[in-house]
Design goal:
The chain is α+β, with helices and mostly antiparallel strands. It has helices spanning about 5-15, 25-75, 100-110, 140-145, 200-210, and strands at about 80-85, 90-95, 120-125, 130, 165, 180, 190-200, 225-230. The chain has an eight-stranded antiparallel beta sheet. It is rod-shaped.
Length: about 230
């Protein structure tokens, strides 16, 4: 058997594949890549978070602007109405905050000319003046039909003298009656909306109250509203 020389064994051992060693440079390079990926993810998250906050701020700003517009529109509405009647002018302050829906309807009807030529068809002394295109008594019919006038009833200061109101009617009703109280009236909260008060022209109201009426409280001579003027300030 041939004998293998030591030199040949050395050459063969060099040819055998040993385990692969990872260099320090490779390790550092891999760590650098991982670090770059992490930094990229952090930067992406920060950018997304910042844009999200900015978008939320825009939405909030938009909502606040809408609220401001709604509020400003409400306060831009006329706050006063001047009734030009056959006896003179009556200036009314409108309760925009206390009765917004009724005031809105009143303003809309004013702009459509609904109150032009509207008569005061019932005048009850020391009680109320009622105007409307309908001849019905509305919210005061129960009292007048029974002959129970103001002097015989328990009154409520919730409806003081020189207040402006309208009868509560069905939502689909197109009728809109005007009440101007001439004294504290019976508690008709279930039948009337109060949406304003007289601030000037009380003497005109009293002059209308003093007109001659028949036994049904209807004026013997025509008296009514000629026109209505809306104003933001007095």
């Amino acid at each position: 058997m041939a004998r293998i020389r030591p030199q040949a064994l050395l050459i063969q051992s060099k040819k055998k594949k040993g385990p692969t060693r990872i260099s320090v440079t490779t390790i550092l390079f891999c760590n650098l890549i991982v670090l770059l990926i992490l930094l990229s993810l952090i930067a992406t998250y920060r950018n997304w978070s910042r844009r999200s906050r900015e978008q939320t701020g825009i939405w909030l700003s938009t909502f606040e602007h809408v609220d401001e517009v709604v509020d400003s529109n409400k306060y831009d509405l006329p706050g006063y109405a001047v009734l030009n009647t056959s006896k003179g002018y009556i200036t009314m302050e409108l309760f925009k905050d206390g009765s917004p829906e009724t005031v809105d309807k009143f303003l809309d009807l004013c702009q459509k000319g609904y109150f032009k030529g509207m008569p005061f068809h019932h005048v009850i002394k020391n009680y109320v003046i009622l105007g409307g295109h309908s001849q019905g008594l509305g919210g005061i019919e129960d009292w007048t039909s029974k002959g129970k006038l103001h002097s015989r009833l328990t009154t409520s200061l919730k409806h003081e003298a020189f207040m402006l109101g309208t009868a509560k009617v069905k939502e689909d009703s197109k009728a809109f009656q005007l009440f101007i109280t001439t004294a504290p009236i019976p508690d008709l909260n279930d039948k009337l909306f109060v949406f304003g008060r007289v601030i000037k022209g009380e003497d005109v109201v009293q002059e209308i109250e003093d007109v001659d009426t028949d036994e049904h409280y209807m004026p013997k001579s025509p008296v009514g509203i000629i026109d209505v003027m809306l104003q933001r300030e007095i």
